[in-house]
Amino acid sequence: MHVEFPDKRYYKIGEVAKAFNVNTSLIRFWEKEFDIIKPKKNAKGNRLFTPKDISNFKLIFNLVKERGFTLEGAKQKLKKNPESTFDKYEIITRLESVKAELIKIKNQL
Prior knowledge:
Order of helices and strands: EHHEEHHH
CATH class: Mainly Alpha
Radius of gyration: 15 Å
Number of strands: 3
Strand order of the largest sheet: 1-3-2
Shape: globular
Number of helices: 5
Largest sheet: 3 strands, antiparallel
Number of domains: 1
CATH architecture: Orthogonal Bundle
Structural class: mainly alpha
């Protein structure tokens, strides 16, 4: 899944949920389940996610929703070898963006 975000410092929970096409409750749930997601909170208590949080959400989304890992399996995968998991995900993300660009070029021809 190729998710695009505008270049911002912080993202609201609604923006994150809409980009991933999930409910905000799932975002809050994953925040509690995975300790790699640490949003900032403003004075009202609203969650503000950083680009690092977004990249962690992409990784979790890939493991759970696209590759079919259970939550426990995803947690173990992230704890066992986080660098390798993230590196592989980065490669997949880059390939997906190249594919999307090639499809766009093909449609323009």
